[in-house]
Specification:
This is DNA primase large subunit PriL. Helix content is 47%, strand content 3%. The chain has 16 helices and 4 strands. Helix 5 packs across helix 6, helix 6 packs across helix 11 and helix 14 crosses helix 15.
Length: 403
């Protein structure tokens, strides 16, 4: 390690970061000037808004009273919790590889291994050493880049985003609003008079864009939201969920574009490179097992056809993925085994896929466990094979099939 005391270097760099970020802070809705968004078609009419809290009386709205804004202090603790903040990035960039304390390297390896072992339930937060917690994040990211495995990158990113999401649930509103303002999520606090609809709001177009991976759950569909004046109103829990999704996408985009050559080996300790080699070996063991049906398994022709296309890497429609996942879960496959089947596809996104499969399994949302579409529905969708002539007996759903 370098001769500079990590603590002294940390204090000096932190002071420089704080001085460089004394600009004003505003939430997305209150920033100015900005080009106003057009009112979405069908939302402006009073009749369309009555069900969303608008009385349709035509009375003028009262003057809006904004919720007071108080910018939180960006200190080591906040950066340790949310290392994707710009301040945390600048702080970490002030350290060379040789300046990092041993605890940062050790914690980085620990973060990656926690992500591999537990996925979204992985990476913990260790407040007893916030310096190591801040510096271990970019170091763990570098480990993922050096290992250069798509599954690992997505697994680690998902775990880190879930970690941030868990921490955000416990934050004061001022801190949460600050985090939103620093994220890709275009949301802000609702005005005082609007708070009967929800604590936060975002434009319909932004909601649909940010919630696109959650729309398989009816609770997230636009028709089930409180909408007024072109904005979707959200409670705190839903806002945090969308913020977690936004953080995940930002982290993943940056990580997927990085290559091993982007990590310069100069100054990296041998322990780091040994850890990278160790993680490469662990990755092969930690991948979800791809359990395919054996010859003795009785699969209906429609599901066998979808399964084969998945294995061949061919295009599979969303309704086909849903049907196959629901069928496998009904036949006793676990969530991880279903994910393992799809994990080799180029378009696989573990965080999104896990949410969707757990929803189908009845582990999220309404807790309803879904079955695949009925045989009648499969025929109408063009998914039935040979008109069902290969299915013995009269069955109404693929799960009833037995050879």
């Amino acid at each position: 390690m370098g001769s500079t005391s990590p603590t002294t270097a940390a204090l000096s760099i932190l002071w420089d970061v704080i001085k460089s970020h004394t600009h004003s802070w505003r939430t997305a809705c209150h920033a100015s000037p900005a080009t106003p968004r057009p009112e979405p078609e069908g939302v402006a009419e009073s009749g369309e808004r009555e069900g969303a809290g608008y009385d349709g009386s035509g009375h003028a709205r009262p003057t809006r009273e904004h919720v007071p804004e108080h910018r939180p202090t960006v200190n080591l603790l906040l950066m340790a919790k949310y290392p994707w903040l710009e301040e945390a990035r600048m702080f970490a960039e002030g350290f060379g590889h040789g300046d990092l304390p041993d605890a940062a390297y050790k914690r980085a390896v620990e973060r990656v291994r926690e992500a591999m072992a537990k996925g979204e339930h992985g990476v913990s937060f260790k407040a007893e050493d916030v310096l190591a917690e801040v510096l271990s994040f970019p170091t763990a990211r570098a480990l993922c880049i050096v290992v250069d495995d798509i599954w690992l990158k997505k697994r680690w990113t998902s775990a880190e985003a879930a970690r941030c999401e868990r921490l955000m649930h416990a934050e004061e509103e001022d801190t949460l609003r600050f985090l939103i303002s620093r994220s890709p999520l275009k949301a802000c606090a609702a005005d005082v008079a609007e708070r009967r609809y929800g604590e936060f709001k975002m434009h319909i177009a932004d909601y649909l864009s940010n919630a696109k991976d959650l729309l398989t759950d009816p609770a997230w569909k636009l028709v089930n939201q409180v909408v007024d004046g072109g904005y979707v109103y959200l409670d705190r829990a839903r806002t945090v969920r969308l913020l977690g999704q936004a953080v995940y996408r930002r982290l993943l985009e940056g990580l997927m574009g990085a290559r091993p050559v982007d990590v310069r080996p100069e100054g990296l300790p041998e322990s780091f490179m040994r850890a990278a080699e160790s993680i490469k070996r662990i990755v092969a063991k930690r991948r979800p097992k791809r359990r395919h049906p054996s010859d003795s398994d009785a699969w209906p022709p429609c599901m066998a056809a979808i399964l084969q296309r998945v294995k061949d890497g061919k295009d599979v429609a969303h309704v086909e993925k849903f049907s196959l996942a629901a069928f496998m879960l009904a036949r006793g496959f676990t969530v991880d085994e279903v994910l393992g089947l799809f994990s080799g596809r180029a378009d696989f996104d573990e965080r999104t896929a896990r949410y969707q499969v757990e929803h189908i399994a009845g582990l999220r949302g309404s807790r309803t466990k879904y079955l695949p579409p009925s045989c009648e529905k499969m025929r109408s969708l063009g998914m039935c094979v040979d008109g069902g002539v290969r299915c013995a007996g009269k069955i109404r759903n693929p799960v009833q099939y037995h050879e």
